[in-house]
Amino acid sequence: MLLEQIAFTFSVIAAFVTVLFILSLILKRNDIADVAWGTGIFIVALVSYFSGAQGELSLILTVLAALWGMRLTLRIYLRNRKKTEDFRYKKWRKDWGKWFYLRSFLQVYLLQGFLMVVVGYSFVHVNVYGANAALNVIAFVGLLIWLIGYFFEVIGDWQLDKFIASKPASGEILSSGLWKYTRHPNYFGEVTMWWGVWVMIVSLPLSYMALISPLMITFLILKVSGIPMLEKSFADNQNFQEYKKHTSAFFPLPPKT
Questions:
Q1: How far apart, in whole angstroms, are the C-alpha atoms of residue 218 and residue 253?
Q2: What is the Rg, in whole angstroms, of the alpha carbon atoms belonging to the chain?
Q3: Residues 101-157: tens digit of each pLDDT
Q4: CB 201 within 8 A of CB 210
Q5: Phi, psi of 249 (to 5 degrees)
Q6: Residue 114 and residue 41: Cα distance in Å, rounded?
Q7: What is the Cα–Cα distance from 106 to 94, expressed in whole angstroms?
Q8: DSSP H or E run through 2
Q9: For the chain, how many helices (H) and strands (E)?
Q10: How far is residue 174's CA from residue 166's CA, in Å, rounded to a whole number?
Q11: What is the rounded CA–CA span in Å between residue 58 and residue 42?
């Protein structure tokens, strides 16, 4: 049952990212992959819900996936719509040359589709092993953790958008609000939400298998495409380097004196 559910979910996601790839060729913008990340994981939750157990717990988790995924998709779309293609994809167009389209499909879209299923595996798990599962005390604790994470991500993004809209001076850094306590409140919120999802389903059979979801998103944000890539782009910003000395990289902590 589990393998069949994973295979079916991945086949739907593979079709989804293939459509995205074709759309990227028409628009000549590979950064629609970033826009579609949240939507893709919501599709994982939705597909597994309608083809799975459909218990009370799985319904709540599907709603949470919608709140997270669709907000993220809308925000990235609004942020990117008036900009040119992200610099990373522009560089790949140049570096990959005649292999760009093949590598783009394999390394951007199919790889992202695979990660969508891996990160969203908790939703698959609850719909396989959570038939008629209701919200118990532990699930409520997980929901509280998720809400804390959602608060950090939403408010952190809102404060950042407000700062950018104020047209700050060149090199100026946001260091107030949640950004006073962590250099990446939105990333902290993202990771916290996925651990909250796992706590919500920890009472289900074989829940240790679902650890792949929070572990993968934690690894990606802390070690791959999140904090390291973003902070590398600020390497020459002296204001950021000073801010970095006093502010926690991830966990919200009082500023160092």
A1: 19
A2: 19
A3: 898 899 889 999 999 999 999 999 999 998 777 789 999 999 999 999 999 999 999
A4: yes
A5: -70, -35
A6: 10
A7: 17
A8: helix 2-27
A9: 13, 0
A10: 11
A11: 13
